Amino acid sequence: MEINALYYLIPSLIMFACGVYGFITRRNMIAMLISLELMLNSVDMNFVVFNRFLFPGQMEGMFFTLFAIAIAAAETALAIAIIVNVYRANNDIDVRDICKMKF
Amino acid sequence: MESLGSIITYVVIALAIIVFSILAVTTRKILRAATYLLFALFATAAVYFKLDYEFLGGVQIAVYAGGIVVLVVFAILLTTHPGSNSERLASRSRRLGLLAGLAALAVGAYSLITRCELLASAPAMSNPDMDTIGTALLGSGHNQYLLPFEAVSVLLLACIIGGVVVARKR
Predict the structure, then answer these.
(1) Does the N-terminal or the C-terminal CB of chain A have fewer CB atoms within 10 Å?
(2) What was the ipTM of the complex prediction?
(3) Is B48 within 8 Å of A48 when comparing Cβ atoms?
(4) pTM (predicted TM-score)
(5) Residue B53 in contact with residue A62, Cβ under 8 Å?
(6) At B169, is the secondary structure helix, strand, or coil?
(7) What's the half-sphere exposure (Cβ side, CA atoms, 13 Å) at B99?
(8) Interface contact B143, partner A, CB < 8 A
(9) pLDDT class for B80, splitting at 50, 70, 90?
(10) Residue B25 Rama label (left phi>0; alpha psi -120 to 50; beta)
(11) How far is B97 from chain A (nearest CA, A)?
(12) In CATH, what number does A5-97 get?
């Protein structure tokens, strides 16, 4: 049995589909954030796999993933600050209840 | 031909990724979802180690598993009652989610299957050592990444200030 790129891309694809499912069905903002992390992570994994199997010896995919991880950390920190703020104002983080700013 | 140990490692990692990411979006306790996310991130780090990107695997564990999950767990403890279940999904929203997830799966699987050149096995590659990574990260020449490195540091600073401003008590 040869382990080729497809063997890594298929778990990553399933991870992405799980993220899509969770992002649509979840109502809690933190659960939505978790689904978002799953999607981001599967894309990072794709970059690394393509780098390793199609362009070995170069490091573009690896550096893209490195910067994507840093940006994901920044994004999560800000999202959580916003969620805590919403909780303070609303006493709830259900997305259906956050409609004060809708026109 | 892969060795038996390599195949067993691969199967364990792949199963962990699939099972934990499905559990993370289907469990009804939010703290458990965060824990399953942590395990899925660890499995991804194991993929990086297995593909010879050891620095990247270390970064994945330190930043994702060590930083982001801790932030998420703190936010969960601040905003929800531990042990409470989220309410059951309405069947309409579940159907919609399943439809979108399966559509993503189908499009991805179709595009993967029609690309036959991905069926080659892994070419030989040596693990990029810290010297190479550091030079590429802090050089300003061709294929070197000083500008994104500095841009990310400014972004992180802006993010720290933004987080403090947004979450501060008024």
Answers:
(1) C
(2) 0.92
(3) yes
(4) 0.90
(5) yes
(6) coil
(7) 6
(8) yes
(9) confident
(10) alpha
(11) 5
(12) 1.10.287.3510
